[in-house]
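Fold it.
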Amino acid sequence: MGDSDSDEELKRAIALSLRDQGFPSPVPVREGNIPSGCEIIDLDSEDEAQNQRSRPSATMQTTTATPLTAACSFLGLNRKAMEEERLARKRRSSISPPPMRKTIKRSSPLPPNVITPATDAILKPNQQMSTPKPGESKVRIDGAKSTDLNTTAIGPSYLDGVVKKTWAFGHDRGEDIRIEEVLQSTALKLAVLSSFQWDVEWLLGKLERSTRLILVMEAKEDSIKRQYERETSTMTNLRLCFPPMDGQVNYMHSKLMLLSHSSYLRIVVPTANLVPYDWGETGVMENMVFLIDLPRLTEDQDSGRKNMTFFGQDLVYFLEAMGLDQNVIESVYKFDFSRTVNLAFVHNIGGVHFGKQEPWRRTGYCGLGRAVEQLGLKTSEALSIDYVTSSVGALNIGFLSALYLAAQGDDGLTEYQWRGSSNEVKKALNVQAIKEETQIHVNESFRIYFPTRDTVASSTGGTSSGGTIWFQSKWYKSLTFPSSLLRDCRSRRQGLLMHNK
């Protein structure tokens, strides 16, 4: 979507906006082959002894993780050496955050996924933000424990699934949730975390040192993958996963959490990246979170592929495409998916999809249409669609028509016939009439919610907080852009921008 230079423009815009705020900018950090000497881990592992039994013979020296210090990156690198290496790589991004400081002067824009924390903008572990004084523009931090953090709800709480808003500093609590309440870190055994943007130092501060981690990160080039692997080689409780990014796939934007506890698995699909401002800690941004808790089955039970629900089947399909270790994927079957029977897991896997198994039906808007049909919601009736988004590309009626048909339960073939059929086939199937009718419905009842410039300017963080709310005027001014479908998007919590989808 958009012109060929849009990727780089997006990177620069996000980096500049987040740098101007004085708090984090964005790191894509992905699991391929597990290095020799590393233990095999899965969602079903109960204790360290079990992991020791399954560990292959070591060929790599292991080192106990050491405390974080300001002088080193979270990966234990000397900051001076890392800076020299970074410059030698032509300022290519690193997953190692720079030391905490109030002002950071740079001669060029930051890579969009590199976090550069400012001392007065990051919430440290066991600290909370205090309410700013009138006219005070920066967030102050004190060491008191949070009084509104729900620390009692440790255990499966969302057996039927729930959608919540992320907590936001400075706003009353309601149907929201904090990242600490999502993670339930005191009882968390293993976390598989996928994100586009990362503040790893902040994230590690939310977790216990005993928690094993698999971070699913973006890295298109092998040199970047090897760099990340070198930087994490001494972190014995952490693995990296790098989903395939072949061909024209340039982003890995998926956000997913698999949080394994002794008695249940929590599956989380957030719109938030793993950065503090997306989780409300700077009081400028709102996101959404879907959560569902799946009880652990007894030892003699196993969901199995044949008995897995539609939701579970597509979750496993996505994890396999992501490149997670097979042990982790197989351990998913140790949990009870029965209460996901009325749900669907809709995903988008980058790349070209073809073959006898028709993988194109399982992802993207084709997968959305398949999910609608599977859930018994397919219809030929006209729909009214409200679409909330934080990023808008070079839209046109053709693309919106494909989404509209998918919402009706179409698997993508109808739209494909519009483009790929011969004139004879189009005439026989009355394709033109169907296309025109669909486009009329789109123009009449498809609404796209995205904030106006005035809404961004009047938000708590102002225009400098809108770097991840993405749109370009050249797309809006295009003759094919459906500008009449846009509506202003405002949070019910005054002053927040919405990163929701």
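Residues 21-38, 47-83, 89-112, 114-147 have pLDDT under 50 and may be disordered.
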